[in-house]
Write a structure and sequence with these properties.
The chain is an all-alpha fold. The protein is 60% helix and 0% strand. The protein has a domain of 51 residues. It is rod-shaped. It starts with 18 loop residues before the first helix and ends in a 5-residue tail after the last helix.
Length: 81
């Protein structure tokens, strides 16, 4: 009596071929998003400290020693910003 044994190979289910690529693309997009958030945070902090360190009176910077009356006139002008 002869016994016949057949082995079936375990084959993964067919996919569309995008499984690994989709994961890599998602990780790439997440890394780019995280780095853009970090860059925006750095720029915001840097700008804050830059404006904090800079002198606050641009009229005094434009002229070496303006007379006090001239400073008062310029400061009393309406802001055009």
């Amino acid at each position: 009596m002869a016994v016949t044994v057949t082995a079936k190979a375990i084959v993964p289910a067919p996919t569309d071929g995008l499984g690994r690529g989709r994961r890599e693309a998602t990780l790439y997009a997440l890394r780019k998003f995280a780095s853009s958030i970090a860059t925006l945070f750095f720029v915001a902090i840097f700008s804050f400290f830059l404006f904090w360190v800079l002198p606050a009176d641009p009229v005094r910077d434009l002229q070496r020693r303006p007379p006090p009356i001239q400073l008062g006139v310029v400061r009393s002008l309406p802001d055009r910003g």
